[in-house]
Amino acid sequence: MSETAPELVIGIDIGTGGVRALAADASGNIVAQAQQPLEAPTRREGPVHEQDADSWWAATCAVCHILMAELNRRGRSHHLRAVCVDGTSGTLLCLDAQHRPLRPAIMYNDGRATAEATRLNELAGDFCSRMGYSFAASFALAKALWVKHNEPEVFARTARFLHQGDYLAARLCGRFDTSDYSNALKSGYDLLDDRWPDWLAREDGLRERLPDVVAPGTPIGQLAPSAAEDTALPAGLAVVAGVTDGTAGFLASGVRRPGDYNTTLGTTLVFKGLATALCRHPRGLIYCHKLPGASPGSAMWLPGAASNTGAEWIARHFPGADPAALDAAAASRLPTHHIAYPLVAAGERFPFLCPDARGFCVPPAQGAALYAAQLQGTALLERLAYDLLDQTCSASGGAVYATGGGSRSDVWMQCRADATARSFHRPACAEAAFGAAVLAAAGCIFPNLWEAMARMVRIERSFAPNPGRAGAFDAAYEQFKHELHQRGYL
């Protein structure tokens, strides 16, 4: 295939606050892109976080109309080959027999299912040891069990549990019985044996409500005429099985060497390493996604996890502020003596598990000083995560390929490199939607996923750690860990 072949693919990313979509060619050039905000969450209070799935579809349709208008203007719409959707990991939807949502979706960071997670760990003890993780309240299967225990009438009417990305792909192609093994991980799918495990039968009603599972990048259908009318995408367009948003961020990152990491910094922090074997954490804090391997019959593993900490604090503490102005004001204050843990809501998942964790800044700060402290605090949490991942995976000091909205800030990228003493690389397109487009290309243009990544992903800029700042950031890191220990979080 020629580098200048006209084929285009579309990647769609469903995030916490909006939908992004882009069309890319086989060389990784972005031909068109668009975004659309979601409506406000249906409910977010305490551990509860729910969204209306209809708002996902409305935003997806709106963003596709914008995208297609640009492609039509450029005369490129007839070059489209496939579309792929990624969504938040662990978000669960209950559908009835007519594929209609029975209740608002339970979002990835909803924390109500703690008792159900404990029950699953009791049921699946051997399985958890084998897979190297423990079920948590954030896992989709724990949420499904919560529905069974707390909303039995909804559970009785549920014909299918689907994940967020599954549902949007289903709305596109009309196939409501399919997931991929990236999204299905947090529903208990056995990634080693490639099947739903037998122990699920010990909890009546779960297994029969779970979808069939295929490998990411597998063509699962064609765009249905009704979806073509709603979205303006061409009917018959191939729909490819997707991945979680964190895994899509990994595909956009440029990671190619085992021992290196991808961090997607958006509302939350999602960590993914690259390994040739499944990695197991003794307390189950790490889980391994799986991707089709670089050679037939092989698989590559993505050890990692997701933190509740991320960039959400910017909207909370600095609403409407100019990010560039904030960066400029913070740059001269880094490193800072203010030690911050920039968690917005209660509870942390990784690199430590603490349902009662709260954010802090010691001593208190305001304005640019607070902004600098929060930038640094996010980077110090990253360092804690990489140290834990290195220990678990027998790796040492790998580079980081940064994706997500937070990677756009040069000041933050340099702070992260300095605070972690690792080289940071930013791809030309650091968006999960681009990772979904890479996966779409792997399903219809390239012979495999790794060829698609090699041909489409380019590094735009690299940030090396400044040795002159190493001592100050080391001291800040030790103080950061001290403050976490003092509060019982570590």
Give a brief description.
With 490 residues, the protein is an alpha+beta fold. 35% of the residues lie in helices and 21% in strands. A hairpin with a 3-residue loop joins β1 (8-14) and β2 (18-25).
Describe what this molecule looks like in 3D.
The chain starts with 7 loop residues before the first strand and ends with a helix. The protein is globular. The mean pLDDT is 94. With 490 residues, the protein is α+β, with helices and mostly antiparallel strands. α10 packs across α11 and α11 packs across α12.
Straight-line distance between termini: 52 Å
> Beta-sheet strand percentage?
15-25%
Helix-strand makeup class:
alpha+beta
Instruction: List low-pLDDT spans.
Output: none
Kindly report the spatial arrangement of strands forming the biggest sheet: 16-17-15-14-20-21-22
**How does the major sheet shape up?**
7 strands, mixed
Helix content: 25-40%
Global shape:
globular
Mean pLDDT score: 94
Number of separate strands: 22
Topology of this structure?
Blueprint: E1 8-14, E2 18-25, E3 30-37, E4 43-45, E5 48-51, H1 53-74, E6 80-86, E7 92-95, E8 105-106, H2 114-123, H3 125-131, H4 140-150, H5 152-157, E9 160-163, H6 164-173, E10 178-180, E11 212-214, E12 219-222, H7 225-231, E13 238-240, H8 245-253, E14 261-265, E15 269-273, E16 287-292, E17 299-307, H9 312-317, H10 323-331, E18 339-341, E19 360-362, H11 367-393, E20 400-403, H12 410-420, E21 424-427, H13 432-444, H14 449-456, E22 459-463, H15 470-486
Parallel strand pairs: 1-6, 6-13, 10-11, 14-20, 20-21
Antiparallel strand pairs: 1-2, 2-3, 4-5, 5-8, 7-9, 12-13, 14-15, 15-17, 16-17, 18-19, 21-22
Helix pairs in contact: 2-4, 8-13, 10-11, 11-12, 11-15, 13-14
